Amino acid sequence: MSKTIGWATVLIIIAGIIQSSLLSKIAIFHVIPDLALIILVYISYVNGAMTGQITGFASGFLLDFLSLAPLGFNALSRTIIGSLIGLMKGTFFLDIIIFPVLLCAGATIVKAIIISIIHFLFNANTPTYNFASNILWIEVALNAIAGPFVFAFLKLFKKVLTPRKEN
C-alpha cells in the first residue's frame, strides 16, 4: 500500500506542476481542469478509502506548498474527497466513459462544497467558489471531459497504482 501511495502522490504532484505551468497557458475563461483531483479520484476508487485518505492528505499537503493557499487547505479538502470516493470502491463497474465523467464531475462539486464550508468557517484568505458563477461549472465540465482520458492513461500504470494481492 505504501508503494501505491508513493507513486500516486508523485503523479499528483507532477499533475499539479503541469496544471499550474502548462495548462494555465490554454485556460478556458481562466479555468483549467484539476488533473491532480482526477488522479486522486482514480486512486481512491481503485484502492479504497484508506489509500484515498492518505494519498489525498499527502498530495494535498504538498500541493499547499505549490499554491498560495494556507497550509493544510488542500490537504483537508483532498483527504475528505479521497475518503468519500474510496468508500465507493467496488460498488460500480468502472467503465470507460460514463463513470469517470460522473466521478470527476461529482468530486469537483464536492470540492467546491468543502472549500465553501472551509471559507465560511474560517473566513480566512481562502479561495472559494461562487455557485452562481460560470467558473465552477466550467471546471466541472473540464474535469468531466478530462476524466476518461486521465483514467485511461492511469490504467497503463495499473501495476504500480494498485497493491498486489497477498497470498
Word description of this protein:
- With 167 residues, this protein is mainly alpha-helical.
- 69% of the residues lie in helices and 0% in strands.
- The chain contains seven helices and no strands.
- Helix 1 (2-21) packs antiparallel against helix 2 and helix 5 (98-122) packs across helix 6 (134-155).
- The chain is globular.
- It starts with a helix and ends in a 6-residue tail after the last helix.
List descriptors.
167 residues; mainly alpha; globular
Question: What's the topology here?
Answer:
Blueprint lengths: L1 H20 L13 H13 L1 H18 L6 H14 L11 H25 L11 H22 L2 H4 L6
Order of helices and strands: HHHHHHH
Q: Note the beta-strand portion.
A: under 5%
End-to-end CA span? 15 Å
| Assembly form of the protein | single chain
Gyration radius, in Å: 15 Å
Q: Give the low-pLDDT segments.
A: none
Shape: globular
| Major sheet size, sense and barrel closure | none
Number of helices in the DSSP assignment: 7
User: Helical content, roughly?
Assistant: 55-70%
β-strand number: 0
- Helix/strand-derived class? mainly alpha
Overall pLDDT, averaged?
86
